[in-house]
């Protein structure tokens, strides 16, 4: 019995010791786990790639500052052209670009505002206090100027730039961190649509416009299904023969309720949603089918930057030419400088494939933006179209006239034909003829018209002095709006 009692006591001691050891081990594990969790929390507040504060840190800081009941201002910075850096040079270069840009932003911002990496190529700035919005806007303009300079990454010289959206809330009118970021995001995309490299403040109109854009987008999808689009054609007159040499296809949308929406309204919406791709193919196919009846003249169709960036577009173009039987040598595709500036490498590759079909390429709206003689030399267009604004200015301004004359001279030296757009007066017509333009397009000779009317203007020269439309303000209502393009 004594031996059994001693044995039970020993077992009891082992059990107690085991429980104590287990408890100590458990306590250590809990402490280590809590320490690890705290460490993870700290990591989540820091962006691993750039070392900047993270999105989680932004929300925490914003909540703390909002409790002070002061003016709060937020800026969302998006790097322009970063996607192309990743696509062309790989993610390793892209990551290094993000690190370099983070360092630049850190230097520019200093202690004036708090800086965060929100993910991808987006950064945020947060500032509070009196005049926070005004001070943050000034800081953002400095950021844009600095990021517009070439960035040296290894052996590459990269130019990105930045677009910025700004939002603020006044004391007594609080907004959540998520709402402030949403407003800044909306404003940032407004900066991109306006040409990039700028900062834009959020206004209530942006949300109203977004609602309108959503409605137009939904209606556009129905318009494609129910065939609500139509084409008009505006003839171009040859300056030497006084005959119609070409017609340009112009897209129109007539809704079932009787309202007509201009391309300047619905085309940007279609470009944002991606609907411009099927709409553009519809225009191209319809125009080729209509123009089969006009075998002695050229057909000109506008294509958007989105179409040119689409790797499948050259193949789709070839299919349309084959399906319709349209002669590719009679087709001109008009592109704007935007198509080239956004991604010149992709544009050049697509244009080379398009030219392989025998299709002509035209640079539209020359004289309105960044397109230079370097563009003409690099892409070697078959035709140059001088924008209506330059024609109007050249009529009264000597500097604009000199630009127009030099443009025509360079284009002809490169064996490009030249068209003057938006010619509305005999004086303008005489001026562009004297400058050496090959073709004239504008209300002076023709308004846009349905396909059925084109035939009666073919096969005969026009009296270029007597067919001036010369409409008064009352007569203007009888004619189409000034020609607008699909792109």
Automatic annotation (TrEMBL):
Keywords: Membrane, Transmembrane, Transmembrane helix
Entries under CDD domains matching the protein: EAL (cd01948), GGDEF (cd01949)
TM segment ranges: 12-30
Pfam family, one: GGDEF
PROSITE patterns reported in the protein's UniProt record: EAL, GGDEF
Keyword Transmembrane helix included in the entry's annotation: yes
Span of domain EAL: 213-462
Top-level taxon of origin: Bacteria
The keyword Hydrolase is annotated on this UniProt entry: no
InterPro entries: Biofilm_reg_signaling, EAL_dom, EAL_sf, GGDEF_dom, Nucleotide_cyclase, Rev_trsase/Diguanyl_cyclase
Every GGDEF domain range: 70-204
Protein name according to UniProt: EAL domain-containing protein
Organism: Qipengyuania algicida
């Amino acid at each position: 019995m004594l031996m059994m009692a001693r044995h039970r006591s020993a077992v009891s001691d082992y059990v107690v010791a085991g429980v104590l050891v287990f408890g100590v081990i458990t306590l250590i594990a809990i402490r280590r786990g809590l320490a690890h969790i705290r460490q993870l929390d700290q990591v989540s507040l820091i962006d691993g790639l750039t070392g900047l504060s993270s999105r989680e840190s932004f929300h925490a800081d914003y909540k703390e500052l909002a409790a002070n009941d002061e003016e709060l201002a937020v800026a969302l910075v998006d790097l322009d052209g970063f996607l192309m850096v990743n696509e062309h040079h790989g993610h390793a270069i892209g990551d290094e670009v993000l690190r370099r840009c983070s360092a630049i932003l850190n230097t520019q911002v200093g202690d004036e505002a708090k800086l965060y990496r929100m993910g991808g190529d987006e950064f945020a700035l947060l500032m509070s206090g009196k005049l926070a919005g005004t001070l943050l806007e000034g800081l953002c303009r400095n950021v844009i100027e600095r990021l517009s300079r070439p960035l040296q990454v290894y052996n590459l010289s990269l130019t990105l730039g930045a677009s910025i959206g700004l939002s603020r809330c006044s004391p007594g009118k609080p907004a959540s961190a998520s709402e402030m970021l949403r407003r800044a995001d909306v404003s940032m995309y407004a900066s991109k649509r306006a040409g990039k490299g700028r900062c834009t403040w959020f206004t209530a109109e942006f949300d109203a416009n977004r609602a309108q854009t959503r409605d137009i987008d939904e209606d556009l999808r129905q318009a494609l299904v129910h065939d609500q689009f139509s084409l008009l054609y505006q003839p171009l007159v040859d300056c030497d023969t006084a005959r119609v040499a070409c017609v340009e296809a112009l897209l129109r949308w007539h809704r079932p309720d009787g309202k007509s929406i201009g391309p300047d309204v619905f085309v940007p919406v279609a470009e944002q949603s991606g609907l411009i791709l099927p709409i553009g193919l519809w225009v191209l196919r319809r125009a080729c089918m209509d123009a089969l009846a006009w075998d002695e003249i050229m057909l000109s169709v506008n294509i958007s930057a989105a179409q040119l960036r689409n790797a499948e577009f050259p193949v789709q173009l070839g299919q349309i030419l084959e399906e319709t039987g349209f002669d590719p040598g009679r087709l001109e595709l008009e592109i704007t400088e935007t198509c080239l500036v956004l991604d010149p490498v992709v544009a050049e590759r697509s244009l080379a494939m398009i030219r392989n079909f025998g299709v002509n390429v035209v640079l539209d709206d020359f004289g309105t933006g960044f397109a230079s003689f370097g563009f003409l030399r690099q892409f070697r267009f078959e035709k140059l179209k001088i924008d209506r604004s330059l024609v109007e200015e050249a009529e009264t301004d000597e500097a604009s006239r000199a630009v127009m004359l030099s443009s025509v001279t360079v284009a002809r030296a490169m064996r490009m034909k030249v068209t003057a757009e938006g010619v509305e007066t005999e004086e303008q017509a005489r001026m562009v003829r004297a400058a050496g333009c090959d073709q004239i397009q504008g209300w002076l000779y023709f308004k846009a018209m349905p396909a059925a009317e084109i035939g009666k203007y073919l096969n005969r020269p026009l009296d270029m002095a007597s067919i001036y439309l010369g409409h008064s303000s009352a007569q203007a209502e009888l004619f189409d709006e000034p020609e607008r393009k699909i792109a």
